[in-house]
Amino acid sequence: REFESEIRFYSGDDPLDVWDRYVRWTEQSFPQGGKESNLAAILERAVKALNNQQRYYKDPRYLNLWLKFGNFCNEPLDLYSYLHSQEIGTTLALLYITWAEVLEARGNFKKADIIFQEGLQRKAEPLDKLQSFHRQFQTRVSRQTLLGLEEPPEDDTALLEAAEPQRSSLAELKVRGKKKGIAPISRVGSALKAVNQTRSFQTVTSQQLPNKPGFAVFDENSASGSEVPVLASQPWMAPPAARAGENELSAGPWNSGKLLTLTFPPQRPRGGATSGVEVSYPVPSFTPYVEESAQQQM
Questions:
Q1: CB neighbours (10 Å) of residue 30?
Q2: In contact, 54 and 48? CB cutoff 8 Å
Q3: Chain-centre distance of CA 289, in angstroms?
Q4: Is this structure's pTM higher than 0.70?
Q5: Which of 124, 139, 149, 259 is the most exposed place for a label (fewest CB within 10 A)?
Q6: What is the DSSP string of 64-120?
Q7: What is the structure's pLDDT at 280?
Q8: Which has the higher per-residue pLDDT, 278 or 163?
Q9: What is the DSSP letter of 192?
Q10: Residue 230: is its pLDDT beyond 70?
Q11: Which residues of 195-215 are buried (b: 16+ CB within 10 A; e: fewer)?
């Protein structure tokens, strides 16, 4: 509020000083930026308010406001071109350094060098700082160029095979056709690898497979009927032993017509005496089937 009031009622000779202090205070109060700082809106207001005052076109403070505002623009290169066309900061080295760094980050080294050269021709201040940044830029570009020339070969194995061919006397070649021919017994490169891989695979397979299997495989076509095992039913020599258990009742008729009486813990009657509630279940109207040959007890 104090800065806004000072800007509104300012009557001094240097309004840029108020905007410069306002921006620096905002950056210190909100170091992480964000919408709370409202820094982009403050910078936009500052550059527009001072745009008609050409006395600030060569002032580093005014150029610094423009460059900070360019960080919030979608295309900062357009802003730098605008500053160059309006002759804002063209005598300052900071404009050319910032402009060239953005071009270098995008891989446009040729354009970045042109920007540096123009700044050097204009003798932008401080000139020694501009020359130092230009030398560093040339060093980085030279290093990247050398790294691009020293790319490793794509296939090192192919170069090794071409330099030192491998020969084997066991890799035999066959002749196709009816005519008789003599083929050399040497292989080089990938052909030798293929033969060696096939041979090693056959060796491992022969070592892993046993000579005689430890079990016989049943063949239903060759086996006769007598050789096929048949399961025969045999009677039990003795019945299974009875399991000892507790609270087991002996089997008997369960529809004898007796009534089951259940006593629940009822509420106390008003007279003080306890009474049981009798619940009677009717006798079922069917008779369970019992085999005549079944024994009474197992």
A1: 14
A2: no
A3: 70
A4: no
A5: 149
A6: HHHHHHHTTSS-HHHHHHHHHHTTSSTTBHHHHHHHHHHHHHTT-HHHHHHHHHHHH
A7: 62
A8: 278
A9: H
A10: no
A11: beeeeeeeeeeeeeeeeeeee
